[in-house]
Structures are given as C-alpha cells and as structure tokens.
User: What shape does this take?
Amino acid sequence: MTTQAAANPLGPGFDVPGSEATYRETFNRTLRDELERDPDVFIMGEDIAGGAGRYDEEGKPLDAWGGPFAATKGLVQDFGMERIRDTPISEAGILGAAVGAALTGTRPVVDLMYFDFVTVAFDQLLSNAAKSRYMFGGQTKVPLTIFARSGAGTGHAAQHSENFYSILAHIPGLKVVAPSDAYTVKGLLAAAIRDDDPVIVCNHKKLINTSGFVPDESYTIDIGKGRVMRQGKDVTLVGMSWTSRVCLNAAEEMAKEGIDAEVIDLLSLSPLDEDVFLESVKKTNRVVIVDEDTPRASMASEVAAVIAEKAFDYLDAPIKRVTGPHTPVPYNKGLETAFIPDEAAVIGTTKKLLGL
Amino acid sequence: MTTQAAANPLGPGFDVPGSEATYRETFNRTLRDELERDPDVFIMGEDIAGGAGRYDEEGKPLDAWGGPFAATKGLVQDFGMERIRDTPISEAGILGAAVGAALTGTRPVVDLMYFDFVTVAFDQLLSNAAKSRYMFGGQTKVPLTIFARSGAGTGHAAQHSENFYSILAHIPGLKVVAPSDAYTVKGLLAAAIRDDDPVIVCNHKKLINTSGFVPDESYTIDIGKGRVMRQGKDVTLVGMSWTSRVCLNAAEEMAKEGIDAEVIDLLSLSPLDEDVFLESVKKTNRVVIVDEDTPRASMASEVAAVIAEKAFDYLDAPIKRVTGPHTPVPYNKGLETAFIPDEAAVIGTTKKLLGL
Amino acid sequence: MDISSEKLSWLYETMVRIRRFEETMLEQTFKGKSMGVTHSSDGQEAGPTGICAHLTEKDWIASTHRGHGHCIAKGLDSKAMMAEIFGRVTGQCKGKGGSMHIADFSKGMLGANAIVGASIPLAVGAALTAKYKGTDSVGVAFFGDGATGQGVLHESMNLASIWKLPVIFACENNHYAEATPVEYAVSVSDIADRAASYSIPGVVVDGMDVFAVYDAAGEAIARARRGEGPTLLELKTYRYHGHFHADVPEKYRSKEEEDSWHARDPLTSFEKRVLDQELMTEEQLAAIRSAIDKEIMAAVEFAEESPMPPLEELYTDVYVSYSNPVQGLR
Amino acid sequence: MDISSEKLSWLYETMVRIRRFEETMLEQTFKGKSMGVTHSSDGQEAGPTGICAHLTEKDWIASTHRGHGHCIAKGLDSKAMMAEIFGRVTGQCKGKGGSMHIADFSKGMLGANAIVGASIPLAVGAALTAKYKGTDSVGVAFFGDGATGQGVLHESMNLASIWKLPVIFACENNHYAEATPVEYAVSVSDIADRAASYSIPGVVVDGMDVFAVYDAAGEAIARARRGEGPTLLELKTYRYHGHFHADVPEKYRSKEEEDSWHARDPLTSFEKRVLDQELMTEEQLAAIRSAIDKEIMAAVEFAEESPMPPLEELYTDVYVSYSNPVQGLR
Ligand SMILES: Cc1ncc(C[n+]2csc(CCOP(=O)(O)OP(=O)(O)O)c2C)c(N)n1
Ligand SMILES: Cc1ncc(C[n+]2csc(CCOP(=O)(O)OP(=O)(O)O)c2C)c(N)n1
Ligand SMILES: [Mg+2]
Ligand SMILES: [Mg+2]
Assistant: This one.
C-alpha cells in the first residue's frame, strides 16, 4: 500500500494491522527500519548520539542525547558510531561531506536540528546538493536525505522557529516533503531515504508529540502526492505540515455549523501535487490556503498562483491565504501564538469567503 | 524629484538636465556620490579595488580590478582603503562583520559579487541582518546595503546565475530592490544606502551594459514603489529587473498588431507595491507576470496570489506566469537563452490569453 | 595585587550576581516561568567577569545562547533580564527575544545569539567601527568550545588579524558542546594554539580563576587598544548544570569530573584568596551576597508583576520603516 | 630517482598535455569558441600531475574553477573537455556545465566547482565513503590560496582530522586570488602551518617541481591509505596568465615577479633534469610534445564539429525522477 494509502483519509481505519504511535516514535522507528534495510544508509548530525567517544559499562557507545526530540534515540547502541555519526558544530562541512559521500556511493541522512541552521550550510545545499546532477550533465546523483525541525510554537524565538520550506521548495534539484502525522512521516521518511535525489523532510515541532494510527508493515508514500484529508463540497482548505491539522480541526468545527469543507494535505511541497488541490477546487469553487510560513513568495503563494492559472474558470470567489505575518517569530507565548495561523483564523476567513 | 519621477515612463523625456549613461557608469557614479555624502558609508568586497596592499607610482593604492563589471572602479584611489576595503574570500565573515559594523554606527555597503555567493553568507543575512531589530525588541537597526549581480545570459552556468530575489523577498526584515535601467539604479541605490534597514540591490547582468537617460541631480526612488513603464488598456504585463525590459519590448511589438499592453515595473520586491499592479489589472482585467527566477514560490507566484485575492472580481481570464523553468541555469548558450523568458514567450502567452 | 578595592568588590559582586541569577533563573524555569529553554552559565562566572572588568559601555561584546553571564558582567539590569526570560514587555527586548536574545545596545551588549558561532563576526564588525571611527573601543566575541567547529570563527580571526582589529576572541571552553566532549569534536588539545594560524597571540587561561582571567584579558585588551590587533583567549572552564535546563549531564560526564571542577569554584577560590591575603573581610563578602540575593529576588518579583507585551508588538520592530506591512493574510 | 620510466614519461606527458590544453583553450576562448569565462592553470602543471601520479580511478578528487589541470591529471579525455568548454553535447557534461564544471565520475573526478571552497568538503565526503566501505581509496581536495579564506576549509580539516579520514588537502598557492595578493588576504606566511591547528602534517612543497610534489604527495597519500589520516600540502606555484581569460595581470604584479617564476617553469626544469640525469632523451621528449600537440588539435576539431545539445536538454538531469516537472510557465 503506497500512494493508495497516502490518498486515504487520516491514519485510523485501515484494515491493516497497526497501532497508535507518536510521530516521534514513528520517526525513530522508521530510521531504524531503513538502517536495517540498507547498509549504505548512515546518519550524521550533532549529538544524534551524544557523549561521542565515551562508552557505557557494557562498552557500548554512549547514547546520552539521541538527537533533538529524541529522533535518533538508541540507534548508536545498535548500529554503532560509523552509522550513527556524531559531528562537531560544522553544518557546512557536514552537509558538504554528506554530498561528497552521496556522490561516491553511500546514502547519507543528515540531521540539521532546526531549519534555521540549514542557512549555515545553505551554499552546500544550493550549489552542490541541488545542482550537481544538472551541471554535470546527469552523470551523477545525490541520494541524500536531510531532516530538521520547523515552525513556531515552542518558545524557541526568532532563530529556532523557521519553517523555511517555501525557500527550499523554490530550489530546482531539491525535493521537499512535509508529513502531517505519524502515518505520513513513516511513509515519507522511508520514501525520502530510498529516493535517489536530495530530499528534505520537514518535521513541525508541534507534530512531534502527536500520535495516530501507524500500520506495522513497511510502506512508502509517493513523493509528489498529496492527500484528501476530509471530503467536502462547500470550500477547499489547503494545508501543509502542521496547518493540515489546523485545517482539519477547523473543518470539523465548521461541520457543526453545516459548512462542509474539503481538506487537502499537500504532504509534498516539491514536487507539488497540483492535481489534488485543483480537482478539489474545481468541485468546491472556493479555496483557503493555510501556511504557517511568512507570506511573501511562500508555498501559499505558489498554490494560489497555480489555482489562479489552472482552475480560474471554476472559482466563485477570491483565493484566500491564511499565513504567518511578515515578521520573525517572537518569543513571548502570546505573540508566538498569534503568529501561528489557528482554527479561529481559518474559520473566520472561510466564513467571510462564504459570505456567512 | 523622487517617486514622481519614478512613476514616470522610461528615462528619456524629463525636462531636467541629464545625459545618456550606462547602468554600469551610473552605479559607480552613485556609489561615489553616496561616499561623498556620508562619511559613515564604506564599501567592502572581494577585489572591489584589486591588488590590495600594493601602490602605484604616485603612492596611491592600486585599482587593479574595480569589482566585477567595474562597479567600484576608481573609488579606492579617491576614497582610500579604509572606505573601499578589499576582503579575503570570506562571505560569511565579511557580511557578519558588516552587520556588526552597522549595529555599531556605520553604514556598510557590501559587494557580494554574484547572488550565488550570498548562500555562503546566508546565515548572517537571515539570522543577524534580518532579525536583529526584531528579536532585540526594536532597540537597534541595521543600516546595511548589499549588492550583487543576478541572472542568466552570460554563460556563467549553474553556480553564477542565480536570480535569488524570490528567496530574499520572502524574508521578513530585509528589503529588496530590482532596478531595471540606469535611471532607476541611481535612485534606488541611493535610497538603499540612505535607508536604515538592510536593503539588497539586485543588478541583472544583462542590464549592466544598457544605457538610458540619467538626470544629473541627485535623487532617490522610494523603496516600495513600482512604476508604470507603459500605459495600456488590453492587458497588464508585470516585470521586474531584466524582465521589465522584456515586457516593454513585447508591448512595443504587440502595439504594432494593435494590442495595447500596460507594463508594470515592480522596482521594489520588498516592500511590494501592490497598488501599482492591482490598479492596472483592475483596468485591463488581464495579466501576465514575467519573472526570470524559477517558478515555485517565486515573485511571480506572489504577484499572482495578491491579484487572485485582491483583484479577483476584475479578472476576465486566468493569471498567467512566464518564468524560467524549474531547473538550474545551463551553460550552453542555446539552452541558457531558452531558460530566460523572452519577448516571444511573453507575446505568445499574451495572445493566447487574449484569445488571439 | 594591583587591583583597586572597588574593582575587587566589583569582581566578587559580579560573579555572585551571575551565580544567583542563573540559579534563580533555573528555579523559575522549572516553575514554568520561562517561556522557552534556558542555558545556565553557573561555574563559568570568572570568564565574563574578568574580561568585562576592563571594558566600558563604549566597548562592545557579542554573546551566545549561554549569555546571561556576559550580560551581567557588561552591566545589564537583572530586572530587565529576568523580565525578558519571563517574556514580559518590561524585558530587555520587550519579551520578543527571550533568554537566547538578551541585548542592551546602550551598554555595548550586541546581543545573545542562538546560532552557534554567528555572533563572532559581529564583534569583528564592532571593532571595524572602532577602527573606522578612530576610537579606542574594542569588541569581544564570547563563544564556546563547540563554536570552534564553525567556519565563521576561522574567517573572523583571519579578518581581524589582517586588518589588525581590536578584537578579543574569548573562547569559553567548558569542555562540552551539548553532550559532545571537546576532545571528540576539536582536533587540537589547546584551542588557544590555533591563534598561530592567524599570527596572533593565543593564551590558555584558567577560566575558574577570575584573577588569571583579569590579568590575561587586561593584556589582550590593552594590546587591542594600542592598535596591535586581536588576541585569542581560551578560558578553560566548566558548566555546573546541564546544557539547557532539562539536560541531565550525568548521562555523559562523571561525578568525579564534576567534583574536580567544583573544587575549583570561582567564587569560593576568590573568597579564600581575598581573605587569606586580607584584601576583603568576611563581612564585606557577606554584605555583597545578601545585597545580591535581595536584588535577584526583586528581579523575579519585577518580572512576575510585569505585563505581557500587547498583541500589536507582533508586528512592530521588523523594520525602521516599511511602506507595505503584511500582518498575515486573514 | 625511484620513478619508473613509464611514470616518468607520464609525468612529462601529463604536464605537456595540461600546458597545451590551457594555451589552446585560451586561444579558442579569444576566438569566441568558449561560451563562458575560462581560467587557465598553465604554470601550475606540477601540482596536479605530481599528486595524481599516485591515484587510480578508484580515488576521488574535487576541483575548482581552475580545474582543467586537475581533470587532465586525473585522466579525463581532452576531447570531451574541450567540447564541454565549447558547449557541445559531446562534452563531458553535455555542454550543460562548461569550463567551471567539468567532471567525470567514472574517473573519480568529482567536478570542478565555481564556488570558491565549496568542493573541499566533497573530498572529505568521498574519503568518508572510503572509510565507511573499508576500501583504500583517498580523496584529494584541490583549492587555492584564496579558498583558505573560506570557513568550510577549516571545518573540513577538523572533520578529516577527528575522523582520521584519507584526505589530502592540496592548496595550490599561486599567490593570488583574482587580483588579491596572498600576503594581504592570508594571515600566515606558510598556509601549511595551519595544519598544526588540526594536529595533522602540513608540508610546504615547491609547486614548480613535479618531483618535489611527487615525493610529498606520495608520502601523504600512503599515510592516508594506511588509515593515519589527512595531510595538508601547500604547493607554492604561479599562474602564468590572468585570473580569467580577460584579466590583465600586469595591473597587479610585476614583470620581475613573473620572470622569476617562469625561470622555474615546471616543464623546462623537468626536461633539464631528465636530460642531465640521462633518464630520458630529447627525442623521447620531442615525441611526447608532438603527440600531445596533435591530440589537442584533434580535441579542438572534435569540439568544433560536435553538435549543440538539443533544447530538451534544458529540462533533463534536474532529478533522477520527478513527478511534476515545471518547464517554465508559458
Ligand atoms: C548553527 C547551530 N548549530 C547547532 C545549534 C544547536 N546548539 C545550541 S548550543 C550547542 C552547543 C554549543 O556548544 P559550545 O559552543 O561549547 O557552547 P556551550 O553550550 O558549551 O556554552 C548546539 C550544538 C545551534 N544553536 N546553532
Ligand atoms: C564563494 C565565492 N566567492 C567569490 C568567488 C569569485 N572568485 C572566483 S575565483 C576567485 C579567486 C580564487 O582564488 P584562489 O582560491 O587562490 O584560486 P585561483 O583562482 O588562484 O586558482 C574568486 C574570488 C567565487 N567564485 N565564489
Ligand atoms: Mg561548550
Ligand atoms: Mg590563488
């Protein structure tokens, strides 16, 4: 079950064996599965083990940290330091080395912690990871996976809260996926690691402790396929990463008032599944795009532009965007909460759009 | 004459003293004016003088290079090495030092050569230049100007041809301007250097040797104001940087066939002058946005999204984008030329849109 | 010892203020009063204190995620600092920055910075301003052993050297970057030795001894003010608590190691020394401690009672001026 | 001398090939045959030749904007290289890369790179692959004196050192970065001395003497293959022409300086040495030269006659697979 399942509603309700699990556990578990599947896969990052060079009583390498949000917890003790490689704080050097390793026959997975830190390695990402295949005339490939945490909501303030995916999705040569729950992170992370192109996996901090149904079996979700999270006929809500859940919650709320919203979860930001939201808009004739990233030249802008070009004749109302403001992310909880598009904002905008 | 002039058609035809000059000469001349105007202004970059530490017969510092495209030619001999400061190849260090200097009372201008190299200093740009004022609660400011060359068309291939402005305009805390001729670069560069926020000036390589009318007097063009390059009633063409000229040429062509296109030149990408293109679209009811940058989450997407939201009821046809493809820039001349949106593409798309 | 008695009590007062601030800040974090993660610097008091003892408000420092000690040593107000951590509008940054972004430009404090290594070139730029304007101000870049992994440090030291800028590169080597031991991540035993790569002086300093720091920093700063260029100081020190409030350091370091550093505690060794040499009395020391206790308690009260920033603050301070702000599209 | 006669003629042949290729490439550039800027490496032949003499196709090199010499020394085909510069579909990268992006992964050549310093960590990554897979391959990072200004070099040397990776950091110090003299931009007199910052060997090598390079590189590479980690080699050398084809070096360097380096020309000094020591005859040398002349002329013809890439090539090779390509929106 790959795309099929991806196109299914939310986790629960498959007739396949599985269980409730958190996004965090599922992410860690999927890394483990892929490490077992393919000996060429290894992980690099700062404190993905912790206590590097030190060993416990049984002589096993220390597992003192396990990566931010415990993404890699426990892996070093089972896979060793060559495959779970702690690094100094050298994002450019690490990512550059990962690209070099990918170009020469391995499949590196790099934990860059927070998307804000991708900026330190941005040249390696844009100039080498994204462009090598093209500028060398297709003679090579870069099977590299990068993951980090994105978004506001945890009081990390301006320098630890970037969403950053709009910038990444703009770049030819990169693929960008944004899981929205435990079910999708399993399928997308596995697909990313098995993909022969550089893929970036966006993990919103607010998703990491959420839980949902996860099938036991191994599966991938096709990169480039979005899903319909909820069927509806009155209006289309388009979400990505955390905002897909915001859209779903808003839709459930509005259902109580008889507003039947369809919810689209993009899942992949590059390649972008245009069909999944175009088909929906052609049915509902109205759309609200919800994106936590700052508005200018954002994913919300892109989705709006595609609709304005390819579904124009089906539109009965202006295309609405609900996004973060054109500001950095503030520290104070109240301000930070106001930064993030929430259910109230989505409902308010949608009702206005429907003239209610 | 500031905005007024900015809102005027192209260079020639003002009743003010002036002369024909190249973009290149005008850029250099404007740097000179601003260096004379304000002793706190200084310029840093790689080989902006050349031969650093060496002197000519008259004991003047060598002026062996003068920056890429001679942007800073001759300046070191008149202003000295403290104000025209050659640097090692350390973009992150240079930009970081410039931010530190700006935070402590000077007004640095940094030449980063090609926009591709901004990626090496991207963390300093995003985390420090753009966010300092906000995360420190408004107690400081960053009066910094950054300029570089953008775009395809000179056979520089994948790593020297970034437009990059879509990524920059996405970032809260930065301002981005894109002059389209000698007249606008004089007003916008002066405005950028006098501005108290970080401003990035995009100079398309293909513009640098173009020439046009430039008033003698000193003037600034308001950052955040676009201009109507050509009045028309049938369709609106929105351009930026080099593509503004492409739009104008296409409009002149189409005029011969009786198609009367209005041409909007954005000039500022952040802040974005929404009114100048919204008013035009409300008049013509049709729009083609022309952007050399790659399409996803681009300036073209942003302009389309704004129109789809704020001028929807005035639109008689889908919003069209004409952009570069979702690929890096190729080396071969024929491929590179095919990458760049040209008059033929604009005319073809416009006619299709008009059902001709 | 050629330190005035005023300076002597300032050194003690400052170290005690840092210690109490950090301990209290941690307590308050565990009480849920901080709106984000906090990084305590207790154990490292001697470094910022011994260095900033030579600085005025005309000098600039650039700091890190572990910046409270730098702030206090540079003379920032503990009330405004605590209020910032509590996310209040009376905070140093109106509650918009938090623990990792405390700054006070009026005091020459260019800000804590949450990107490791990113604040280093800011100090170089401040020194460039000093040179450009012909003042005798200096810039101090505080950074940790982990930050030496960042290329921008290399670039900054090279720039400061070739331009002979008045910069002090103050590496607080507390032997860990998060849970990563310095001996794993850093390919040289004394970070100070890397100064040779830039033809500048590099000095290993006992970062637990404020007098050692005071002397080494005094020399480096005097050299910088004389226009002779930058110096790299490596302060060997230790953070008593975890990397951040919730970190459990026992997972990666031994009790013995911790004890050996506590045995060299900067405050107690200061006390012992000034009492042995009869430079200060137990009464004087006690008076300073109780005064600081009151001050820090008052800071907590102040923070507690301060209002939250109004929602409009979300949209302010992005630019000095911007013709077309976008307050989110709703 | 313990060099086989085959190796000896390979050294000469390779240096002559580089020299002729660069001279011809420049001529062709001035004729307008190159579709972009070109950077000649003539004068620097001994470096890549002496190093690559120890490498096989299983070893990897990462190169720079001035990469033709590296390519040739690593065994790339001069036809495919010239065709690439001419922008033809028969070029090493189908005409999509150009002079600054020539690569041949089948030969272990990871590509020229137009971002100064950016290719250095790629060689570290290649060495990581070697270590990870347990092969005895090495990675060589070629970079210039100007590239030492980039932080990523510092990061790469630290990583290679702590992980004991088989990497050779080959700094071609040709004394200029564009028009910037090395003594202005680099804060140490011998770049090789910076190796001490990473506890690895650093060796200053006469980059005009292929035998000196051959010996130093042999030692470093053997060390790397033994698993003892990286070495930094500084090859003191000189580029005979300008930074790029249109640059006029007279503007920033003296005739005397240029002459002093030409007097140490790697080809003539090789010839003198092998003839003096009767290791090769003038006939053998002449035969090699004329063979290479023919080869390079043939390369130009090949490039001339090769077709341009079809327009569809604009859209290929962005990804291995992509479900929704966007060919520009028209
Ligand atoms: C560029 C970047 N990478 C990683 C991090 C995550 N991080 C925060 S602090 C830290 C360790 C820093 O160690 P050190 O420089 O020794 O300072 P210390 O915490 O010991 O004071 C890391 C890895 C970051 N904030 N920025
Ligand atoms: C990141 C970056 N900054 C600047 C440039 C422009 N540039 C190209 S080559 C060069 C000089 C490089 O000098 P060096 O490393 O000594 O190599 P050489 O040209 O002498 O072989 C510069 C500044 C670039 N290509 N990339
Ligand atoms: Mg540390
Ligand atoms: Mg050089």
